[in-house]
Amino acid sequence: MGEWVYSNIEKEMAVYGYDSVVKSHCRMCHGGCGVLVYTKDGRVAKIAGDPACPINHGTLCSKGIASAQLAYHPDRLTYPVRRIGPKGSGKWERISWDEALDTIAERILRYKEGFGAESIVMGYGTGRENEAVIYRFANLLGSPNVLTAGHFCYGPRIATSIITCGTNPIVDYENHPGCIMVWGNNLVISNPDCYKGEPFSVSLNKGAKLIAVDPRLTRIAARADVWLQLRPGTDTALALGMLNVIVNEGLFDRDFVENHVHGWEPFVKRVNEYPLDRVEQITWVPENKIREAARLFATTKPAAIQWGVAIEQQINCADNNRALMALMGITGNIDVPGGQVLFQSPKIRNVGYFGAHRMLPDIQSEKRLGGDRFRLGGNFAIINPKCVWDAILEEKPYPVKMLFFISSNPVMTRANAREVYRALEQVEFMAVSDFFMTPTAELADIVLPAATWLEMDYIGDFWKRHGYILPRRKVIQVGECRSDHEMLNDLAHRVGQGEHWWDNFEQALNWILEPMGITWKDFKKMDYIRGDVRYQKYKTHGFSTPTRKFELYSTLLEKWGYDPLPQYREPPESPYSTAELYKTYPYILITGARSPGFFHTENRQIPWLRELDRDPVVEIHPETAKIEGIGQGDWVVIESPRGKVRQRAKLSAGIDPRVVSAQHAWWFPEKEGPGHGWDESNINILTDNSYESCDPAMGATHVRTLLCRIYPEKKNGGNL
User: Is 406 found in the same domain as 496?
Assistant: First the structure.
């Protein structure tokens, strides 16, 4: 393979006149694919997948292919700026990096002295593999408050898997599962976290049985042997129903249960509270389908579950994750080839160690916003966003005076967007690091130009649980853009943290790799490093939990005052929990359907990617559209008790007539004026962030399911 790859590279370079090709590691999404970056006259000319990369085997999504359009976009921020008018006025002046960082450092030290380090909140969103440096900076500063997407995206998987079995169980596609259950995930579109759509598709082509759990008829659901079209938000009930079948029909792995499970008896009692007739009533999935899926998953070896953020952005977030892990565990599919493996990282200083979590004083850790309310999230240094907005708007439990957002656009991505906007307007000082002037950045005092993945050296997939690390090699420099790692390393010296940082960030990369006896220069010459791969490690070492067993009954959740067993909670808004509201808002709205070109709020100004989706789209069943007088492609109003937005109708028979599905994170970079239409189609205008609607342990905001009504834009006063 290697000789063929490099022979073809040489031919391409000769034919097209490329100057060089650099092997690197894409970061246009959470994916992390190996890439070949071709340059000509000092600029990126072409980006292709690297066939020699074990992560993606030469495949590459539309986002990766379009990376150069991001790097060279004419509207991109290429130097630091300072706001000179009112917030949101769009008036800026160019400043130097020294002036920008000096100003930010002065504010940090002022607020720390006057209000305590906890008054300063660091934040990041989708992440550019910058979480380690952000947490290091915050923890050394003494601030326990780092605002991430971790309360409802990937963080819950890590938090719940650690307390259940010690680490995140990853599907072993390399050894091809015999059955794959895809639950609330569309990985052939999103390539999420530790996964790519390509190895999943290869396993299907090799004969894997497929179970799809999704309210929508996705491409995956269309290919499934069994499609469970559940009522949105009822995942835990469905999982407990499947567990009921497996337990009562004796389809579980008796050796694993008898020797490696904690809490079997109370767990059996809990699943028996979910007989299939009750589960059908809750989920709208017929009993026979639930039984068929449970039997198929339990009797096909090996089997694995591919799950995504759809099950985490709910009031049942933690219990959704725990119930799915129970399915993996009791069927004997944990840490076996082709199942769900607890992979080991290479012997490096990992993200947690780099993040200096142990260096945050206990007295400061106890001040973490929402830590006493959401104990599971707080235990993993994760906070609920509303706690920050309240601390700004109401100064409770103490005032937050400064925000520093890095690769984050919370105006578009967090629930109750108007409250978010008010908080960002009111906060005393805010800095933002990003590629473009986003709706969030426009409310900042200083905006810094962030580097893309093409403009930095780093250890790719440093944070993931699939066991690989790969070198990300710098290819170009655009303007004065700097990586978040370099920027924070520089800023740390200005606020008195210098002894814990480095003269340059290459030294930090050396420090991460030091336990392996190599340097960054050594690693740059390699294709990748993989941690040791061993299976069924629990047979000799047990699981990394308090009981050293797979905890169906969580001793830590019990200690923190939560139900130690998974349970189902009805969504805060539903035909059953809010029957009166349902009379006015008669449809269940689900949010967050993925697009191949966008990464949450990103890429809507990238030509190739915007061509894939020109406008925001809401999927509606044809029967529903007929009732409401909506035609294909019509602009329609989607309204909840909190507001209304507009999106274009797409008629689809692959959705229940009682359900509509809207895209998230829409803004319009092409629109002139402040905000770029941030509140026109932003589905988070409609979502709720009340504490009562959040997952009680994790603090996950329930943004995936709510009630709405929908009608043509020009009907019933529907103009926005």
Answer: yes
- Model's pTM, two decimal places? 0.96
Specify whether the CB–CB gap between 435 and 70 falls below 8 A.
Answer: yes
Beta sheet of 303-307, edge-to-edge order: 226-228, 209-213, 179-183, 303-307
Give, as one character, the DSSP assignment of residue 362. Answer: H
How many separate domains does the chain show?
Answer: 3
The Cα–Cα gap between 368 and 106 comes to 23
pLDDT(1) > 60 = no
Instruction: List pLDDT tens digits, range 653-694.
Output: 999 999 999 999 999 999 988 899 999 999 999 999 999 999
Q: How far apart are CA 588 and CA 629, in angstroms?
A: 18
Spatial contact of 188 and 200, defined as CB atoms under 8 Å apart:
yes
CATH number at residue 495: 3.40.50.740
* pLDDT one-digit tens code per residue, 705-714: 999 999 999 8
Same domain, 339 and 425: no
Average pLDDT, the chain: 95
195-208: pLDDT as tens digits? 888 999 999 999 99
Residue 572 lies in a domain: no
- The residue written with tokens 């409609």 in the block is 686
* pLDDT reading at 409 higher than 90: yes
Q: DSSP letters along 576-615, please? A: TTTHHHHHHS-EEEEE----SS-BTTB-TT-HHHHTT-SS
Structure tokens at 71: 């790097």
How far CA 249 is from CA of 243, 253, 695, in Å, comes to 10, 12, 32
Q: Are residues 180 and 322 in the same domain?
A: yes
Tokens of 105: 């450092």
**Cα distances (Å, whole numbers) of residue 319 to 30, 161, 311:** 24, 11, 9
Determine contact, residues 585/708, Cβ cutoff 8 Å: yes
Question: Do the domain assignments include residue 306?
Answer: yes
Strands of 92-94's sheet in order across: 92-94, 81-83, 446-449, 429-434, 402-406, 120-124, 146-147
Q: pLDDT tens, 274-332?
A: 999 999 999 999 999 999 999 999 999 999 999 989 999 999 999 999 999 999 999 99
End-of-domain residue from the set 280, 309, 344: 344
Q: Both tokens of residue 275?
A: 């007989």
236-260 mean pLDDT: 98
Give dist(CA 304, CA 636) in Å, integer. 40
Looking at the fold, whether 319 and 403 belong to one and the same domain comes out as no
Same domain, 336 and 358: no
Per-residue model confidence as pLDDT tens digits over 161-211: 999 999 999 999 999 999 999 999 998 888 888 888 899 999 999 999 999
Q: For residue 511, what are the contacts with CB-CB under 8 A and spacing of at least 6?
A: 349, 502
What SS3 class is residue 470?
strand
Give CA–CA dist 495/41, Å, rounded: 40
374 in the same domain as 235? no
- Supply the DSSP symbol for 230: P
Compute the distance between CA of residue 181 and CA of residue 540 in angstroms, rounded to an integer: 29
Handedness of CA 374, 377, 379, 383 (dihedral sign): negative
236 and 385 in a single domain? The answer is: no
Beta-carbon contacts of 376 under 8 Å, excluding residues fewer than 6 positions away, are 159, 160, 163, 318, 557, 560, 562, 697, 698, 699
